[in-house]
Amino acid sequence: MKPDSSNTVRVAVVTGGAMGIGGAAAHHLAASGHRVIIADRDRPAAEHTAAALASQGHLVSAVTIDVSSPASIASAFAEIEQLAGRCDILVNSAGVATVAPFMDFKLEEFQRTMDINVTGTLLCSQQAARLMIKHQWGRIINIASVAGMRAVGSGRTAYGTSKGAVIALTRQMAVELAEHGITANAVCPGPVDTPLTQKLHSAQFREEYAKAIPMERYGSVNEIAAVVQFLASPQASYITGIAMPVDGGFLSSGARGL
Fold first, then answer.
1. pLDDT digits over 23-39, tens only?
2. For the segment 53-78, what is each residue's pLDDT rounded down to a tens digit?
3. How many helices (H) does the chain have, and how many strands (E)?
4. Annotated catalytic sites, by residue?
5. How far apart are CA 126 and CA 245, in angstroms?
6. Which residues pair with 11 in a beta bridge?
7. How many CB atoms lie within 10 A of CB 100?
8. Assessment of whether the complete model's pTM goes beyond 0.85
9. How would you list the strands of the sheet with 35-40, edge to edge?
C-alpha cells in the first residue's frame, strides 16, 4: 500500500453517529479536519449532532440510515455520494444489544442482533469500499467489543457472538481490500459509559465489572473516539486487520485482589 499523500479534505461517514461512541467519533474526526456525515436511524438526533458540530465551524451533514435494511443502506450511500462525491473513512458504530439468559434467548432477537451488528457492518463496508476504491485510499473502522474476544458475564449470547463475527469480518476485509489502499481495523471497547450501557448495566453489574478492570473504572466515549481518530489517520497507514482492545486492562487481567 502506498502512503497517503493527498491534501484532499477527506469524507468520514459514521453510522450510529448521533450519540455515544459514534457521536464522539464524529466530533473527533470533525475536529481533525474531516468532512463528517452522520448516518443514523434517528434523523432528528443526527441533525442535532450535526448542527452542534456545524456551529463550531465544521463541515457536517446528516443522513438517515437503518443498518438492518439493505435498501436503507443502499439509499443512504447513494445520498452520501451525491452529497460529498466520495467516502474515505467509514466508522461502523451502529449496533444493538439484548441481554437474556442463554436458554431463553429468543431466535428473533439473535437474528435481529446479527442483522444489525454483522450484516449491517458488511453492507455498509461494501458500499463504502466501492467509493474508496475509486481513490485507492480508505479507512474502515468497526466498533466491536471485548465481548467478542471473551465472554463478558451472562446474557450476551447474541451480542458477544455478533462482535466476534465483526472481528473476523474485519480481518477478511483487511486481507481483501489491502491492494486497494484500504485498511480495516476493529476497535474493541471494554465497558464504556454510553446510553446503551446505562440502560443495560445494573448498578451491581457495573460494580462487579469495574472490579475486574485494573484501572477500576468504565471508559469514556472520548477515549474510544481517540483510537478511532488515530486509525483513520495517515499515521496508521501500516495498521490493518487488528482488533484493538481499549479496556483499561480488562483482557489482560486474571484474578484480582489476591
1. 999 999 999 999 999 99
2. 999 999 999 999 999 999 999 999 99
3. 9, 7
4. 159
5. 24
6. 35
7. 15
8. yes
9. 60-64, 35-40, 11-15, 89-92, 138-143, 182-189, 243-246
